[in-house]
Amino acid sequence: MTTPYAIELKDITKRFGSKVIANDHVQLTLKKGEILSILGENGSGKTTLMNMLSGIYFPDEGQIFVNGKEVLIRSPRDSFDLGIGMIHQHFKLIDILTAAENIILGLDGPSRLNMKEVKAKINELTGKYGFDLNPDQKIYDMSVSQKQTVEIVKVLYRGADVLILDEPTAVLTPQETTRLFKVLKNMRDAGKSIIIITHKLNEVLEISDRVSVLRKGKYVGSVETRDATVESLTEMMVGEKVSLDIERTKPQGVEIRVEVRGINVRSHEGVHILRDVSFVARSGEILGIAGISGNGQKELLEAIAGLQEIESGEILYDAPDGTVSKLSEMKPEEIYKLNIHLAFVPEDRLGMGLVGSMDLIDNMMIRSYKDGWRPYVDRRPPRKLAEEVVEKLEVQTPSISTPVSRLSGGNVQKILVGREIATSPTVLMVAYPVRGLDINSSYAIYNLLNEQKQKGAAVICVGEDLDVLMELCDKILVLAGGRVSGIVNARKSTKEEVGLLMTGGKGDK
Amino acid sequence: MNVILTFIQQAIGQGIAILFGATGEILTEKSGNLNLGIPGIMYMGGIAGLMGAFFYENGNENPIPVVGLVVAMLCCVAASVLGGLIYTFLTVTLRANQNVVGLALTTFGTGFGNFFGGSISKIAGGVGQISVKVTASAFRARIPVLSGIPVLGQILFSYGFLTYLAIILALVSTYVIRRMRVGLHLIAVGESPATADAAGINVSRYKYTATLIGSAIAGLGGLYFVMEYLGGTWSNNGFGDRGWLAVALVILALWNPANAIWGSFIFGGLYIIYIYIPGLNRATQELVKMFPYVITIIVLIFTSRRNKPENQPPASLGLNYFREER
Q: What is the residue extent of each domain of chain A?
């Protein structure tokens, strides 16, 4: 111990109320110039622990040392002053301001703004670490990954030596993730210390030097990344051996359910989003949809659910009893009545499908408020449904009358997906069902999808993680630039083949 | 020619009170506070200034114009800030609904003005008897040589100092919002108080400061109306709906005080144009008086269709900030 640790936490304990112990005597060390991953499932106390470093919470017990000196961090300002910067999962940026203006927000300095000087300093930072950032660009014009860059530069601009990133890759495409990791490595090589909170094991192995694992608020241990494997880390994280294989059964009772014939969709701005898309979805099968995000996945599912107007083409539904109906000419609620359900998990998780300030029962009722003896609503079925979803999916909630915005992201997602699954749909469409979820919750959701498949539903699943899609689905449809660039058999194809289809397929048809 | 000159002068005269109100309201709204109490605060500022001048002139044998002016300004600002303080205390500290508090404050302020206006009328000896000629003369004093220039002098230099103060305040406000650090922080508070808070900006302090300064500026609009426009008298409800025009002008100006300058002249012109249009009867006059509001609605439709984020109202306008609420 010749050089002191950049950060050392000793016996940190944090309680919420008298019952919940979020962190129970947690130990943590961060060396200078290393990338440390903090790994743990949802609710294991990762974020709480980091919030104590960034001054949002104050620990009940324990000591924090920065560069070997004991410190008290009472507010975000104290944390800045100690050179600690945290990049939250939800970006804290002002949309109508430029990147540069956001970066200097809240800083002291001459009362007259000198943006030239600020921009010069920003360009120096971005050049040094290899960021791609235009200081004059407005936030509302930026992609998620650009916004994240602004957040990181903001922290560096304030002179942070320790960066904490809370699930930085949850909203990034694989390419953006690669770019982010390159920049993080540059920063490490320049002597910065970095903590990444994550539960994506592959990324942990790729980027970090060391891994510390938390489980249920307790510190499990740390390992050097080179000594770790996906299996050993999972075991530390979950506390038991977990099988990471998804049980893929052979499709049974395969019949055509949905036929999409040459649909074209344009956005309000007139941009061609879907071009001549045709495919069939069959019962008893999981059809995966792969593609770089924003290549028409959302519009495709919405078109089937009747939420997106199509310019040309048609969508047919072949019901189990043999009747054929034309979905492309029906209203969303009529389509829903045919048991064609869509669960879309947007980037901010809540946005579409659930209302944050309403409780579980009311959120279940969004789907059934038209039933019952009008003008009265019947609250009993949604209450029963809420209880079922909570029990079946192990949703952690104080009660079913808790507003969903108070629940953690994973639990919110379970409610959303659970609500759509609960009524045993004949066609189930899910988009990004495991976005931001930990391993156990993800596998719970995969199992739910498999269960639906075995029950004979036609499942369509838009996913981000190619590894998972390859394991889960029977067929994979690849979208590139709004066109179907290929439909492959997931059992026989390789990840490389699909990856190639994701980027290619532009020139030829 | 002369008619046009008079029209321009009258339009500017009408516009200045609205300009004060709009500049004050823009500063307030930039902090996320939708202060619909501005019309009431303008009443309060006007009557307080008048009362100050009235008691000063009544209490002195030989009142000095400049002293009357200072007394009137101080009383006006004090009363307006008091109005703003009621608003901020209720909405920022106690987190009451902004619309309800604002509308209540307007009702209160109008009543406040009429009550004290009536009271000092009684002291002065009857309706229409209040006169603070000496103080008003200071407010109405014109720039000596320049105002004598024909045409140009009449258009540009034939006003009291409050007119120029209104324009300067609007320009300074724009400069502060656009170019100064406090302006950047103010925008952040109005757009997303949670973000501003996380960046270490004291949200409550910015909301208080912006609203109180905004109220003081708006109050000067009331004082302008009483002193320069009416020449130091009071008539109940005489201020009319100018306060609401100020709130409408905020939208026309797209939350930029500098835009409010020409906007106020347009509003002022439209407000009195019925006098200059021949052949109007009492009913059609009222239709013509509607123009400023119609234009505001057209601008509103136009800008919301263009959908440029910078031209939209501050994102958290009308919402109270509470740190622990997620």
A: 7-238, 243-341+424-509, 355-423
| Global pTM value | 0.76
Q: How many CB pairs below 8 Å do chains A and B form together?
A: 60
Q: Least CA distance to B203: which residue of chain A? A: A106
Nearest residue, CB atoms, B198 vs list A92, A112, A140: A92
Percent of chain A past pLDDT 90, that is, above it, reads: 23
Residues 6+ apart with CB under 8 A from A17: none
The residues near B306 (Cβ < 8 Å, ≥ 6 apart) are none
B188/chain A closest Cα distance in angstroms: 6
Residue A500 has pLDDT above 90, yes or no: no
For domain A7-238, give its CATH number from 3.75.10.10, 3.40.50.300, 3.30.420.150, 3.40.710.10.
3.40.50.300
What distance in Å separates residue B53's CA from the closest CA in chain A? 37
Which value, in Å, is the radius of gyration of the alpha carbons in chain B?
20
Cβ contact B199–A140 (<8 Å): no
List the single range of A330-334, B173-177, B198-202, B296-300 with lowest mean pLDDT.
A330-334
Q: A113 vs B180: CB contact, 8 Å cut-off?
A: yes
Domain A243-341+424-509 falls in which CATH fold?
Rossmann fold (3.40.50)
What distance in Å separates the CA atoms of residue A505 and residue A487, rounded to the nearest whole number? 12
List chain A residues with CB under 8 Å of B182.
111
- Report the residue of chain B nearest A154, measured CA to CA: B199
Q: Would an 8 Å CB–CB cutoff place A101 in contact with chain B?
A: yes
- Residues in chain A with CB shorter than 8 Å from the CB of B199 are 92, 105-106
Q: What is the CATH number of the domain that holds B208?
A: 1.10.3470
Three-state DSSP class for A176?
helix
Cα separation, B208 vs B210, in Å, equals 6
- Asked if the domains A7-238 and A243-341+424-509 are classified in one and the same CATH topology, the answer is yes
Structure tokens at A479: 């979208």
CB contact under 8 A, A77 and B200: yes
Residues of chain B with Cβ-Cβ distance to A106 below 8 Å are 185, 188, 196, 199-201
Residues on chain B bordering chain A, Cβ-to-Cβ distance under 8 angstroms = 179-182, 184-185, 187-188, 191-192, 194-196, 198-201, 309-310, 312, 315, 326
Residue B209: predicted pLDDT: 97
Q: Which of residues 295-324 of A touch B (CB under 8 A)?
A: none
Structural domain harbouring B251: 2-325
Residues of B with Cβ-Cβ distance to A96 under 8 angstroms: 187, 191, 309-310, 312, 315
Rounded to whole angstroms, the Cα distance separating A478 from A417 reads 23
The model's pLDDT over B108-156, given as tens digits with 9 standing for 90+, comes to 999 999 999 988 888 888 766 778 888 888 898 888 888 888 888 888 8
